[in-house]
Fold each of these.
Amino acid sequence: MATKQTYVQVKGLKKHYGDGDARLTVLDGIDTSINRGEICVMLGPSGSGKSTFLNLIGGLEDADGGSIMVDGCDLTVLKPTDLGKYRRRELGFVFQFYNLVPDLTIKENIEVTAHLSKNPLNVDDLLRSLGLYEHRNKFPRQVSGGQQQRCAIGRALVKNPGLLLCDEPTGALDYKTSKEILQLMEDVNRTYGCTIIIVTHNAAIARMANRVLRLRDGRIVEDELNESPVAAAELDW
Ligand SMILES: Nc1ncnc2c1ncn2[C@@H]1O[C@H](COP(=O)(O)OP(=O)(O)OP(=O)(O)O)[C@@H](O)[C@H]1O
Ligand SMILES: [Mg+2]
């Protein structure tokens, strides 16, 4: 097996919201590193800072301190235009609440981001593996929540991103659909070698991860390698 190469390296990462009496420290000095091609699952109670962490790695919010290296490049010192380039080229982001464009069809929602990539996946093939091909010409309001979530995942995957960030990707889905979505992520990870960070409340999902991070009150309280990850199909909860 190839030697492991650090892909994301976070050092002393800090973030607060508000000032004075309302000041709230959300990330209180996070240190971790994630290797290229790993599936990393981040667990932690509500309010512990998981989404904030993901937003910082995704360059959607600014840090107050520390550094975030992705593929050797420190996001915290990038100019806005370079940060935009990073988001467009390197990153797939699956939001907790889909954020699909209501006036575009399922296929168009995916095509929009395919155009941002130098080496996008084939849109029709992806629609088929997402089980969305028959629904491709419908609008988001005409499909189920699970199908909207698949579309949101398709939109992130079609770029063939180096880094895929997923905030509660199965939070609103039933058991069967959740497992299908996780299997899809596993497939993409194996086929294209993208690095994946999944934030979830579901501790069972941690069994499919190479690395498990546990956050509490803005600090990492567990950072463990899982030597024998379980296939997504074998997960149970
Ligand atoms: N824009 C903001 N302004 C002020 N406070 C915020 C903001 N965003 C998040 N917070 C606060 O920061 C803390 C961490 O929020 P975050 O969304 O990162 O938690 P989380 O771990 O993702 O929680 P959940 O599991 O409920 O999604 C919370 O106390 C939240 O209220
Ligand atoms: Mg959250």
Amino acid sequence: MNKTVFKVASLGSGSKGNGTLVSAGSTNLLIDCGFTVKETLKRFAALEFSPQSLSAILVTHEHQDHIKGAGALSRRFNIPVFTTQGTFLSGKIGECDFRAISPFQHFSIDKLMVEAFSVPHDAREPCQFVLQYNDKRLAVVSDLGSITQPIIEKMQSCHALLLEMNHDYEMLMTGVYPMSLKRRVGGKLGHLNNQQSIELLKQLDFDRLELMVATHLSEQNNCPRIVESLLAETFENKAIVYKVANQEQGLDWIELAT
Ligand SMILES: [Zn+2]
Ligand SMILES: [Zn+2]
């Protein structure tokens, strides 16, 4: 019998589009679909993934970089969409096989256990997810302006993280964005800066943690080299694999040891 592999890949990560595939055997979830259907299928193909094998689409919130192709993909392949009422009521998904979820709800999609939890972000009812297969836990967390105690508690029990490291605060503040956008991105309902994400990581259990993927990097206000050096310093002498997901290629499949 084939051993079921728990694995994750990114279709692309950043303000131009996000999508994360999580797979455990025949159970395959897409978290967010911020690309057109055509672009999504191209990126699926690059990962040798078939859209017919999708079990569900999970949507975190209604910003374009997370929702753009979600409704159309769902309709084309008849895939249910799990999201909050608030996100659905934004109207950006349209008609679909909608399954309402609430933050802090646990539910199962075939072999995967899903835990939704709310995050501080300027959307109607944003949530992020922890996925569990057997006793392995993966957190996929982006688009939050600040870190709350419940978020820390969720992530403390995880073995793998895809965590936003959106911007370098200095680069954002001295960069070309208009002041209103700087305030939005850098605010408590915006996005995590590198330092906030590192502070969060330092509160986690490094003996449990196996993988950290930095996501949703700003192309304008961050630099993969800065992020990599911060992670290298944070995880020095620890057996933790760290990577950066980018906008164009995302990230190839990574197997989580089970
Ligand atoms: Zn986003
Ligand atoms: Zn957002």
Amino acid sequence: MRTAIVGGGLAGAVLAWRLTELGLTPTVFISEQGRSADATQASGGLLRGFETDPAAARAAAESLAELRGSPLLRGWAGYRELDSTMVLPPDTDRSAVTAVLRLLDELLPGSAELRELPDLKAFLGLPPGAVAVVEQQAGYLSPAALRDALLEQAVRAGAVLRPEPVVRVLPEGTVRTAAGTGLDCDTVVLATGPWTPALLAAWGFPGGGLRVKQIQYTLGRGAPPGLGAFVDETSGLYGRPAGPGRFLLGLPTDRWGVDPAALRTDTELAQRVAGCAEARLGLDSWPGPDAVTVAAADCYAPSGGLRLRACLPGSPVLTFTGGTGGAAKYALGAGRSAAAALISGEILTEMGS
Ligand SMILES: Cc1cc2nc3c(=O)[nH]c(=O)nc-3n(C[C@H](O)[C@H](O)[C@H](O)COP(=O)(O)OP(=O)(O)OC[C@H]3O[C@@H](n4cnc5c(N)ncnc54)[C@H](O)[C@@H]3O)c2cc1C
């Protein structure tokens, strides 16, 4: 099967590697320029198993369990273990949380537990009735390091890396590159992350509800004592330690439809993060004078996150994108499912679903 993957972010890399594990030797087209500003390069790499949605929790926990169980993967990804706290609002359905905790216990035994407000001393001013899921076996990785290692492994196993941006993909599976070459393929997978909606529109494919949103965080000086990685669903604040005396903090943005190659830092949002850091974590001098704010974009799917989607019924052109701001957590599992589906020919998801 002649398979082309367009895009060498984490999605393209993990799919290429999984395909070589199954005996295929895909051709991966990458854009060196795009790689330095893609979602994978900027990603904070936060990992945890818990999600309120059971399917998302299973996907994240399976990937985390695979990573934790493999010294090779841990080394490639620069994995660091940290506990992770997810603060949930007072109106959270506790029986649904308990069901997800039972699921996590199968995949990451003993890792996660529910804690009540009096035990959440790192956080100030949480609303009464807030609870948190605390996981011991969580942490973060370097998505960029993992991508580089997976591409290297894929090439060793026979995949071909072509540093040529793709300028056109035709519905019957022909790939045309900026260097003027063409390649006829049985399957073409667009793993082009936040570039995907614009490329689909330019090449005449339906957009399938895929959208692009900016994500932004700041690396600053100062750290709340004893706090690992966290997401506070009551304020939107999230973060993790980022080296000695430094902490990464962010809030969600509302910048939809941005061009991933031409992003502007949202300075008003960066100021709100500093205000939230003081109010929620008591960090009154974070981020400090040598702070760095990072802005990048990710591709958001209407549902289902990172997975294979057929662009047109019967067409050999598919997308493997839709990380929705969180695919570093479950890319390993998503890549395995996508590779198996490509081999079996069972692509169950159409664009837009
Ligand atoms: C700032 C930020 C922080 C994040 N933090 C977390 C986190 O803490 N935890 C978590 O789980 N997830 C996080 N994510 C999400 C996760 O990192 C992304 O979902 C994932 O990296 C997306 O990978 P991708 O390969 O789909 O996209 P990308 O990494 O953007 O890769 C797409 C690639 O396609 C290439 N490309 C585009 N067009 C062409 C073309 N025509 N020809 C050839 N190549 C092309 C680009 O150059 C690029 O390299 C974060 C994302 C961002 C942006």
Amino acid sequence: MTVLPARRLLLVHAHPDDESINNGVTMAKYAAEGAHVTLVTCTLGEEGEVIPADLAHLAADRDDSLGTHRIGELAAAMEALGVQDHRFLGGPGRYRDSGMMGAPQNDRSDCFWQAGLDEAASHLVAVIREIRPQVVVAYDADGGYGHPDHIQAHRVAMRAVELAAEPVYRRDLGDPHDVAKVYWNCVPRSVVEEGFARLRAAGREAPFPGVATAGDVPGVVDDAEVSAVIDGSAYADAKAAAMRAHATQIAVDGPFFALSNDLGQPLLVREHYRLVKGEPAAEREDDLFAGVTA
Ligand SMILES: [Zn+2]
């Protein structure tokens, strides 16, 4: 049996790029500190819009080869963050990217939105029982902003945590494991407002033609709901490099970035979490493993 590092962190995301935007400094920090960091991405992001004009042909309505391309982008991002263990749920291409809510792609039988919950969760149970993470990071019930794949990734993560601990469930997938702490990604309102104030203050210097609003940022919550903050200032460059590696999806410029809508957003180097399973070790934790004993 392989011997794993003492601290093990599992993150579950919908598309390649979500992990770098949401958890880039957290992943880089724990990887640098010797923790085992595992990323499970649920789809290849085949339906994403493509920013660079010379790669526009990859899009789903043209060559439909964006998924394969994004496997390479994700690998480069993981290299930038120092994360070696990254996998796709059920293997690459098992679940296809869904579109925004109501989009016709969501009727495709192979899209993640149509996946059976327990079937999809079983693939994650196998990972949880193999890695035995003390900490799992996932989205909230709304997936942060209502994208069907993010909502589904939330459901799959929460269901898998439950099933992985269930002694009679699928012993062929490994011995039961009870995850000590589960966190949901979030961004406190004050941090978003401060970030946008910085962007507006940049005025004409601002790198993008428009400015997004706090409403464009997934997972914004009242400050009081935040349980943990990871100060990743030391890993800001790694996060920016990881985001840059997702070149079809993200344009990074200094402390700002934009998605395909070309609206500027602050690149956040402090990442925030809401604890939803397990006991908080402090009123505002600064370590996701705080209080974890085994
Ligand atoms: Zn996404």
